[in-house]
Amino acid sequence: MNSPSMSDGAPVVLWRWRGGEPGALARARTVLAHALSGLGYDGEAVSDAVLAVSELVANAVEHAVGPYELRLHRTASDVICEVVDHDPRIPEIPPFGVGALLLPVEEGQSGGPGALCALLSERGRGLPIVHELARGAWGLRRSRVSKAAWIALPLPVDGEGRSGE
């Protein structure tokens, strides 16, 4: 796969898939990692983006209808990674702040078994994880027939301090 050409700002579709496709999450991670590496991203930037987008893909597959698309497009200052599904409804997003994943329990309050179960729950942590990994640069946008969940990655900087590409 060649790295995507995004010089005009138009979205580049990296991959399309339908609901129930085996290995969709793994394929999305691989395709995105390869594309970001081709655009000059490396290390933690790639791993954080891949994990955040994995959460968006998992949410789309679980809560919305396909077909789905994984897209990239470039703005003046960012590369936007989008996961598009065909359910225009925006989910209710509970409030959470920076660092909300690991808030300490108030002194003298253990929270009991209910608090432990909530902490260990496998549900409801995806968007706070996306928020942390994307450093707050994420969101949802809808059209008449679809929605896109996105994260923004600052353009990579080359060794001389200039934006790449």
TrEMBL record:
Alphabetically sorted, this entry's keywords are:
ATP-binding, Kinase, Nucleotide-binding, Serine/threonine-protein kinase, Transferase
- Record's keyword annotation contains Iron: no
Listed InterPro entries: Anti-sigma-factor_SerPK, HATPase_C_sf, HATPase_dom
Q: Which domain of life is it from?
A: Bacteria
**Matching Pfam families:** HATPase_c_2
GO molecular function list:
ATP binding
Question: Which residue intervals define the domain Histidine kinase/HSP90-like ATPase in the entry?
Answer: 21-134
The protein's name is ATP-binding protein
- Which source organism does the UniProt entry give? Streptomyces coffeae
Source taxonomy lineage? Answer: Bacteria, Bacillati, Actinomycetota, Actinomycetes, Kitasatosporales
